[in-house]
């Protein structure tokens, strides 16, 4: 079901053409990172730490180097040692020195799977055999795995040189607390005093992984001029260039990144892991080197989203007005600082208009892989705390949870708890659409078959979305088609949506735009595909580049007809003289005359727009639980989301459904299960237990369109907010079914059964 | 994956020659377990022998002395074999739970048995049917009761040079039925947190249990028989109360551990639930 606010407004936007890269992908022709083959290619392998925390006393590579077929063996000694510089990757910042340390451990290993050495050899088996011959002498140290353990006095210290901060003050001595920040507004004590009901709870969530299907990969050459070329699947060729160059201490311009098709990222393919290692192996061998991760390393050595400890406290009056709220969000960053706690703080209260708020956020290092962005990083955890407390308040008030959300909804002009004032947003419209949905208006039969118990949950979420830099060029072909070059790697159908925006401006069908993702030397600087920014910002650039084409085509028409440019107007895909209706050419006709009017036309734009516009999603979930086993099945799920304008509704719905699938897994089964030594023991798809198609219902989508005034077509980012309320929605449904509130994820069958027994 | 030699013999004698050779020789049927184990170094091999082309290992036949299933016969064929569909239903239940359709089309029953995972889904069903394993080597064949076949996680009593040729399930008697259930947190593509296979034969005149067999997966180093629960059942009328008593008694045979798939306490609870449910299904199947 779509609320068709764009209906009739556009010719191309809002339609569902076949994606431009569709045939290549479904036939297997598309070239992914693992498919790349180069002359004289060597195969690499990475040796990784079996320990969660250990000091490296020595590494003996002599036996590995002596193995026939081995071309090079490297350790951190072969890295230049990156500078202590913090850079923003668009969805999370990194310090180059820590990033270098993360791709190849220095004097300590900080998590199981931390790379300690790498090999290049004639074939993969030889490389693996050589890696097994490397002797590493470890002094095993006690690991620390959770935020609350890491914050205890006397906890094992993860980073001995970490300078911890607390509310702007440097912490004396060694600590695992990288930072503690606070947003405070109004008077929370006064606000709670005015409340009739105050609810406060604590939460623990497990670290979870994005679970993209394609493992990380990188192939590199380091040539005689000191120039590095990287082939990889990445969420951004420019951020990969910057990270690789920073770790290798090369100028950015010495590194060229050629992005290949990407089999999922969800934020996890923003950081570089293999690229600098492959480059150094190439430097040592003079040949191209390819590195591929296997699934175990994807889980153990790339960036999941944090495990957390959180508390949330909310006060309301009997009429349902929220008077105050506080939250304490403590996120594990993994082995190096930089958890998304800041983003969690920006989102935790942002569905609501709350006069008095205080939010504390802690960024804490632990002996787990360095976290990375995962779809609205930090917001899903925060919403789990806030939205389950809100659900309990609604239950106490006897108030419809959607009515409560509408009553307290953030609106244009509401101050977000961390400072910004909301522009035009669609929170109320989203809740209203949920209230009007078939799902909400269909009563749930509480008793299922065979004694199963059913429940319905509802929750809402917010994500701020980002803009950042994008570039697009559009070349007009003589046959009237256009080639559109962009720098945004396509992880969610963005080629189609960006091409459609150009087509809309040019007045041609989407199929006549040929979108192409260029390498880092084929297009102007473009930030990461992440932060829900691509359709927004790269689409903005496509709009502006297409406008540039229109300006130039008007000039060509003026030249052709020998009139002033001001005489030419562009309307409905045609260029025409204002004074002489006989002078009129379609885009296609005019394109055929470019060769005789000055040569090809190329339009371009480079943008850095600031009006990304936040987005809301409200979700309704019905579950059925077997009270004898604790097993939960999701039997109906509806996601409602304000998308601004749905450029290609199919890919908008795909983002909504995909995010729901991920948060159902997050809620019910997924976790980094660590043994007593702090090592992950379920690093396979078998035991990590993401949902399969048989574990998911048909996910119903309701698109709400409150156009974003900060975009020429009203686009809001759509990829991230759909995951935000999901875990809370499932938790609230479990409560409705069983009368039990679970405040630890995963809410798996064992924990449900244990809670049921405890209740009896 | 480390390199190894590979052979595809078409006769049992040729295969036995290969298995008698020096070094580690591994059998390949569907490859579901062994390929992954070789890749990840959990098992090693100097030679891998694809045993799917050996006629004896593809046998699927009901004779006067029972149901003969060749060790390399795929799970789909077995689950669709009419006598299995009508009588050996616990085996059909379990065969259709393993992996996905694609895996069931490829994976062999003998592979599931010889992999000897504590969680092997077909094993409790086979144990509940008093299955006998027929193994061969160059020095001849021998029969081993399947309940004596497992030596530990991933370990069988097969000697160097021996391979599993077929599994023989005794003929089904009147008024008997079997059933297998497992618990997984998802709905497919998972491994049993607990599995339970039950077999019941009733005396139709007085509803008493003539014979009961219960076997459990994922609660001990090998699949185990729940003998205490069997004793509770045999000789008594199969009432709901008796089923509940047997379900409680089955927990005595479980020595589960806590791991990523579930806690020991949770597994004990599941033993009770699944035993109760499989016994109820057996009763329903007998009563038709």
List the main descriptive attributes of the protein structure presented here:
heterodimer; A: 760 residues; alpha+beta; Aldehyde Oxidoreductase, domain 4; globular; B: 288 residues; Uridine Diphospho-n-acetylenolpyruvylglucosamine Reductase, domain 3; Enolase-like, domain 1; five-stranded antiparallel beta sheet; four-stranded antiparallel beta sheet
Biggest β-sheet of chain B: count, sense, barrel? 5 strands, antiparallel
Low-pLDDT parts of chain B are: none
CATH architecture of the largest domain in chain B: 2-Layer Sandwich
The coarse overall form of chain A would be: globular
Molecular shape of chain B = globular
Strand content of chain A: 15-25%
**Alpha carbon gap, first and last residue of chain A:** 43 Å
The CATH superfamily of the domain at 380-464 and 613-759 in chain A appears as: Aldehyde oxidase/xanthine dehydrogenase, molybdopterin binding domain
CATH class type of the largest domain in chain B: Alpha Beta
Might you state the CATH topology name of the largest domain in chain B?
Uridine Diphospho-n-acetylenolpyruvylglucosamine Reductase, domain 3
What structural category characterises the helix and strand content of chain B? Answer: alpha+beta
> Order of strands across the biggest sheet of chain A?
3-7-1-16-13-14-15
Report the uncertain regions of chain A.
Answer: none
Instruction: Give the number of helices of chain B.
Output: 11
The CATH architecture of the domain at 380-464 and 613-759 in chain A is 2-Layer Sandwich
Provide the structure class of chain A.
alpha+beta
Helix coverage percent of chain B: 25-40%
Q: How would you describe the oligomerization state of the chains in this entry?
A: heterodimer
Largest inter-chain interface? A-B, 26 and 23 residues
């Amino acid at each position: 079901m779509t609320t068709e606010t764009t209906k009739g407004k556009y010719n191309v936007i809002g339609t569902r053409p076949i994606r431009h890269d569709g045939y290549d992908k479904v036939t297997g022709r598309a070239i992914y990172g693992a498919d790349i083959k180069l002359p004289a290619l060597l195969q690499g392998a990475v040796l990784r730490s079996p320990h969660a925390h250990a000091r490296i006393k020595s590494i003996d590579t002599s036996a590995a180097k002596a193995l026939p077929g081995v071309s090079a063996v490297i350790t951190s000694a072969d890295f230049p040692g990156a500078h202590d510089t913090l850079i923003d990757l668009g969805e999370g910042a990194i310090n180059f020195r820590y990033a270098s340390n993360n791709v190849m451990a220095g004097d300590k290993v900080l998590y199981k799977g931390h790379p300690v050495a790498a090999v290049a050899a004639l074939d993969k088996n030889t490389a693996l055999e050589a890696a097994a011959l490397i002797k590493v002498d470890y002094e095993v140290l006690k690991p620390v795995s959770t935020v609350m353990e890491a914050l205890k006095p006397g906890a094992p210290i993860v980073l001995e040189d970490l300078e911890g901060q607390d509310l702007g003050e440097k912490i004396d001595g060694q600590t695992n607390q990288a930072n503690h920040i606070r947003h405070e507004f109004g008077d929370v004590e006064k606000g709670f005093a005015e409340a009739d009901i105050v609810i406060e709870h604590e939460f623990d969530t497990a670290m979870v992984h994005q679970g993209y299907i394609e493992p990380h990969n990188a192939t590199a050459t380091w040539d005689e001029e000191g120039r590095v070329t990287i082939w990889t699947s990445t969420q951004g060729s420019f951020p990969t260039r910057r990270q690789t160059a920073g770790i290798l201490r090369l100028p950015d311009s010495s590194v060229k990144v050629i992005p290949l098709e990407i089999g999922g990222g969800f934020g996890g393919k923003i950081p570089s892991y293999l690229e600098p290692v492959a480059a150094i192996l190439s430097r040592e061998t003079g040949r191209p080197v390819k590195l591929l991760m296997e699934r175990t390393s994807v889980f153990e050595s790339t960036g999941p989203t944090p495990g957390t400890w959180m508390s949330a406290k909310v006060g309301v009056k009997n009429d349902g007005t929220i008077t105050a709220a506080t939250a304490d969000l403590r996120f594990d960053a993994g082995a190096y600082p930089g958890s998304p706690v800041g983003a969690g703080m920006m989102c935790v209260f942002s569905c609501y208009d709350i006069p008095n708020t205080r939010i504390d956020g802690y960024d804490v290092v632990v002996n787990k892989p360095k976290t990375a962005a995962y779809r609205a990083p930090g917001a899903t955890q925060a919403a789990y705390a806030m939205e389950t407390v809100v659900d309990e308040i609604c239950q106490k008030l006897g108030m419809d949870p959607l009515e409560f959300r509408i009553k307290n909804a953030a609106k244009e002009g509401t101050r977000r708890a961390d400072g910004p004032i909301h522009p035009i947003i669609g929170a109320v419209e989203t809740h209203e659409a949920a209230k009007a949905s078939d799902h909400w208006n269909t009563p749930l039969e509480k008793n299922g078959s065979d004694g199963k118990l059913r429940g319905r949950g509802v929750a809402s979420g917010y994500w701020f979305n980002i803009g950042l830099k994008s570039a697009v060029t559009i070349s007009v072909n003589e046959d009237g088609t256009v080639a559109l070059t962009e720098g945004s790697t396509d992880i969610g159908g963005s080629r189609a949506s960006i091409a459609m925006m150009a087509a809309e401006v040019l007045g041609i069908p989407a199929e006549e735009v040929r979108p192409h993702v260029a390498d880092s030397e084929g297009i102007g600087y473009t930030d990461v595909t992440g932060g829900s920014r691509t359709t927004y910002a790269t689409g903005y650039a496509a709009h502006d580049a297409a406008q540039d084409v229109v300006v130039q085509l008007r000039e060509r028409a003026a030249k052709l007809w020998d009139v002033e440019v001001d005489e030419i107007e562009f309307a409905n895909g045609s260029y025409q003289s204002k004074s002489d209706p006989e002078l009129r050419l379609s885009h296609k006709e005019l394109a055929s005359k470019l060769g005789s009017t000055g040569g090809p036309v190329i339009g371009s734009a480079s943008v850095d727009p600031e009006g990304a516009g936040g987005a809301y999603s409200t979700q309704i979930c019905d579950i059925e639980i077997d009270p004898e086993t604790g097993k939960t099945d999701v039997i109906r799920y509806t996601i409602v989301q304000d998308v601004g304008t749905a450029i290609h509704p199919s890919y908008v719905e795909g983002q909504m459904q995909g995010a729901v699938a991920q948060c159902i897994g997050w809620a019910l089964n997924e976790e980094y299960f660590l043994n007593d030594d702090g090592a992950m023991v379920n690093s396979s798809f078998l035991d990590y237990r993401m949902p399969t198609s048989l574990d998911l219902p048909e996910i119903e989508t309701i698109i709400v369109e409150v156009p974003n005034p900060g975009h020429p077509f009203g686009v809001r980012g759509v990829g991230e907010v759909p995951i935000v309320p999901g875990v809370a929605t499932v938790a609230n449904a479990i409560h409705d079914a069983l009368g039990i509130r679970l405040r630890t994820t995963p809410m798996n069958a064992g924990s449900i059964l244990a809670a049921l027994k405890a209740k009896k | 994956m480390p390199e190894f030699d590979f052979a595809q013999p078409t006769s049992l004698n040729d295969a036995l020659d290969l298995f008698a050779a020096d070094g580690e020789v591994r059998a390949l049927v569907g490859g579901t377990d062994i390929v992954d184990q070789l890749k990840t170094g959990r098992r090693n091999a100097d030679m891998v022998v694809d045993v799917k082309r050996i006629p004896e290992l593809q046998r699927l036949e009901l004779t006067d002395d029972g149901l003969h299933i060749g060790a390399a016969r795929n799970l789909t064929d077995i689950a669709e074999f009419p006598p299995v569909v009508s009588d050996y239903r616990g085996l059909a239940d379990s065969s259709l739970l393993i992996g996905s359709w694609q895996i069931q089309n490829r994976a062999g029953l003998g592979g599931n048995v010889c992999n000897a995972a504590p969680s092997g889904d077909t094993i409790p069903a086979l144990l509940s049917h008093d299955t006998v394993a027929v193994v061969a080597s160059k020095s001849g064949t021998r029969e081993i009761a399947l309940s004596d076949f497992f030596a530990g996680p991933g370990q069988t009593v097969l000697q160097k040079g021996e391979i599993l040729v077929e599994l023989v399930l005794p003929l089904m008697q009147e008024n008997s039925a079997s059933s297998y259930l497992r618990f997984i947190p998802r709905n497919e593509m998972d491994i049993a947190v607990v599995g339970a296979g039950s077999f019941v034969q009733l005396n139709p005149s007085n509803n008493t249990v003539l014979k009961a067999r219960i076997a459990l997966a994922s609660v001990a180093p090998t699949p185990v028989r729940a003998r205490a629960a069997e004793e509770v059942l045999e000789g008594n009328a199969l009432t709901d109360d008796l089923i509940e008593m047997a379900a409680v008694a089955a927990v005595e045979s479980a020595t589960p551990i806590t791991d990523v798939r579930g806690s020991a306490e949770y597994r004990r609870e599941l033993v009770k639930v699944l035993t109760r449910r499989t016994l109820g299904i057996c009763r329903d199947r007998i009563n038709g």
